Model the fold of this input.
Amino acid sequence: MNTTKILVTTAFLLCANFAQANHHEGEHEGCKDMEKMDFSMKDLDTNKDGKISKNEYIAAGSPDAEKNFKHIDANSDGILDNKEQKDVEEVLKLMHGIKIKAPAATI
Done:
């Protein structure tokens, strides 16, 4: 699964629950100062191995965690590696109107 598919899938999942998304804005006053927020998933990595297992992700207690994990685990290996974590971070930043850096061109 490539980055585009991850972004589209994640956006779809987030938009599917639009009523909850509308409530999201009120939770932190219209996403003010979001550029200073840490969108990384590193806090979910409880054993600090640099990867987030399905169990670590589910243990965080997010609603629909198991279903969401299935969608963001791009290679379906049961682990969110660094690349997958960065892809989710980019989606969250985009949702909050934070411009992300374009990936460096590779040859």
Remarks:
- Residues 23 and 107 are 43 Å apart (CA to CA).
- The first strand starts at residue 52 and ends at 53.
- Residues 3-16 form the longest helix (14 residues).
- Strands lie at 52-53, 79-80.
